[in-house]
Amino acid sequence: MEFKNMEESNGIIAEEKENETEINEIEQNKVRLMRAFVEREDSSVKEVDDLMIRRFLRARELDIEKASTLFLKYLSWRRSSIPNGFISPSEIPNELAQNKLFMQGVDKHNRPIVMVYGARHKPYKGSLEEFKRFVAYTLERICARMPAGQEKFVSIADLKGWGYANSDIRGYLAALSILQDCYPERLGKLFIVHVPYIFMTAWKVVYPFIDSKTKRKIIFVENKKLKSTLLGDIDESQLPDVYGGKLSLVPIQDD
């Protein structure tokens, strides 16, 4: 009986590997087709690797036409928003001064951990453009510091102390648009912790704009299950010390 169960188990594994190989071949073919199409529209695509094209394809369920439209829109956005190929800290002094975003450690899948303090974000008159530059700066920093072979990051958004003074619907929607449209398939998981009830008023406005793939990556964590939930994905040696782990927080702008 045990031998039969082993045979069945091995058969399932072999079938899964065969399906995975088939999916990889489909993706590779679609990457080649999409590359040929977008290179005719924009010659700068030759400098882009296949992994980036694959991320845009995956974000649009391997639909070449939709993925190509999104990708060409991204290239246009990048030329206007990051004309020098990078954003300097001198372009976002007010955002960096709020000391609200950190990056240190990796989870059990070797994905970098990004920590955000929502209550430290304070919008001010005329702040939207600088905030959008800050979001792009942050995502560029995260991507540049990905471990070899890794494409995704995980984030912990801590909303302890969040109030109406921190609410920034325009900023949230702008950040969401940049993440989903310009850095698709980069977010692996988002833990939202210490959530005050009043935050849900802002969440109800933002939620309809979150695509279905991103929604599946968002986890609201109960306070009483905070450490155990985080330890399910992150070893204690890599967990920020503010949650009982071993790592000190490192501001995103620090090397």
TrEMBL record:
<dbReference type="InterPro" id="IPR036273">
    <property type="entry name" value="CRAL/TRIO_N_dom_sf"/>
</dbReference>
<dbReference type="InterPro" id="IPR001251">
    <property type="entry name" value="CRAL-TRIO_dom"/>
</dbReference>
<protein>
    <recommendedName>
        <fullName>CRAL-TRIO domain-containing protein</fullName>
    </recommendedName>
</protein>
<feature type="domain" description="CRAL-TRIO">
    <location>
        <begin position="89"/>
        <end position="251"/>
    </location>
</feature>
<dbReference type="Pfam" id="PF00650">
    <property type="entry name" value="CRAL_TRIO"/>
</dbReference>
<dbReference type="InterPro" id="IPR011074">
    <property type="entry name" value="CRAL/TRIO_N_dom"/>
</dbReference>
<dbReference type="InterPro" id="IPR036865">
    <property type="entry name" value="CRAL-TRIO_dom_sf"/>
</dbReference>
